[in-house]
Amino acid sequence: MDKISLNQMAFYGFHGLFPEENKLGQRFVVDVDLFVDLKRAGKTDHMDDSIHYGQVYDNVKKIVEGKSRNLIEAVAEDIAHQLLVEFQLLQACTVKVIKPDPPIPGHYQSVSVEIYRERE
Asked: Could you tell me the CA-to-CA distances from 94 to 17, 32, 60, 106 in Å, in that order?
């Protein structure tokens, strides 16, 4: 299966278990891999035969910057569900939601959740 990737999309959202996270917000970074047959698009050179990644970005942005969720697992699930509903050519997707600055003590680069969902 062919793949379109959108990497390191950065947003500001209000997700987390702690009240401070819901009030102050924080950065979130999202990576998305879209699994789709791109053979036709490669031959026709028509956007209708592929997935418009600008529209993918807009869908992800609405979710990450939208309704507050307790878990980044829920954010990832919302993104995967919306992409599968919105783009009929999409066969499957991987969604990685990265929380660069979680409010937990220690030394680390980030925490993240990655999910894979297929069209049923």
From this structure: 24, 6, 13, 28
Cβ within 8 Å of residue 62, ≥6 positions away? none
Per-residue model confidence as pLDDT tens digits over 13-29: 999 999 899 999 999 99
Q: Taking a C-beta distance cutoff of 8 angstroms, is the pair 51, 89 a contact? A: yes
Residues with catalytic function:
99
Q: Residue 58: its pLDDT value, please?
A: 98
**Residue 94 exposed, middle or buried by CB count within 10 Å (0-12, 13-18, 19+):** middle
Matching CATH number, 3-118, of 3.40.640.10, 1.10.260.40, 3.30.1130.10, 3.90.1150.10: 3.30.1130.10
Question: Which tens digit of pLDDT belongs to each residue from 78-112?
Answer: 999 999 999 999 999 999 999 998 888 898 999 99
CB 88 within 8 A of CB 73: no
